[in-house]
Amino acid sequence: MIEKFRKYHYALIAFIGVLTITGLNAAPLKILDFKSNQLSPLVQQQVCKNLASLCHEKSTLLSIAVDHGELWILSQNKIVQFKQQHHQLKLQQQWEISIPENDEFASVSHYIYPKLFPVAQQRYAIARIDEYSETYSEGGAHIERASFYGLRTDGQLKSLINNYPFSFNRIIRACFSERDYATSDGNCHDEDQLTLDIRPINPMQWQFRYHYNLKLSPASDSQQKSHQGNRVINIDLTHIPTQPDIPEAWNFHGQD
């Protein structure tokens, strides 16, 4: 009887250990989306009372309501966390992301991506997107690069990922002669694009899924062929590569 109890006891300990290791007791990490027009007039009034700087005329308040009475607000480059206590909102913490002034002449702009990316349970990061536009002869490109910052509990930011490819769309002219137009089958441009899908898979670990598509004109002089490509990369947020391991053509910064 004692021996059976010991075996049962050891098996129970082993089972609990498996639960702990695999994280079955932890809630799955989810990316949270900021959305507009979710705040009731009463809640918005409380938000403005706590932090008047959020509520000037030009500001648009985006929000996320989380379990346990937690409310996140995004307004331009400010992220604010509130907690509901006794039917009142209480300011918990706020962060401000540095955004350079937009340069209209250089076709450069910046914005905060309206999502919270989890780095661990109840810990998040935010992304700043830098946009670039280029114009070519009968073509052009639109490029986005992303930098991610961890939101520390003391209101400071921790730089996590710097200047990673986020997306681009590029169109390059392929027809220059009558023969090119005759052989183009109505398509006189080479086009390629890159998109990124981000998935949190474990605390301090994200999965980046890059998708690339190249479509060439029949008149193109490119040595490549039209194709699609995918690259899945697990990003350890404690040891982040300077740049992701993707083909050079996918990591397009713009023309020098």
Number of helices: 3
Oligomer: single chain
In what order do the strands lie side by side in the largest sheet? Answer: 1-6-7-8-9-10-11-12
Low-confidence stretches: 4-24
Order of helices and strands: HEHEEEEEEEEHEEE
Number of domains: 2
- Globally, the shape reads elongated
What's the total count of β strands? Answer: 12
What characteristics describe this protein?
about 50% strand; eight-stranded antiparallel β-sheet; about 260 residues; single chain; mainly beta; elongated; 3 helices; 2 domains; four-stranded antiparallel β-sheet
Question: What is the compact description of this entry?
Answer:
The protein has 256 residues and is mainly beta.
Provide an overview of this structure.
With 256 residues, the protein is mainly beta. It has 2 domains: 65 residues; 152 residues, no CATH class. Helix content is 14%, strand content 48%. An 8-stranded antiparallel sheet has the order 1-6-7-8-9-10-11-12, with no helix packed on it. A 4-stranded antiparallel sheet has the order 2-3-4-5, covered by helices on one side. Strand 3 and strand 4 form a beta hairpin. The longest helix has 21 residues. The chain is elongated and about 75 Å long. The termini are far apart. About 8% of the residues have low confidence.
Break the fold down into its secondary structure elements and pairings.
Layout lengths: L1 H21 L9 E2 L7 H10 L11 E5 L3 E6 L2 E8 L2 E9 L11 E13 L2 E14 L2 E13 L5 E17 L4 H6 L5 E14 L2 E11 L11 E10 L20
Antiparallel strand pairs: 1-6, 2-3, 3-4, 4-5, 6-7, 7-8, 8-9, 9-10, 10-11, 11-12
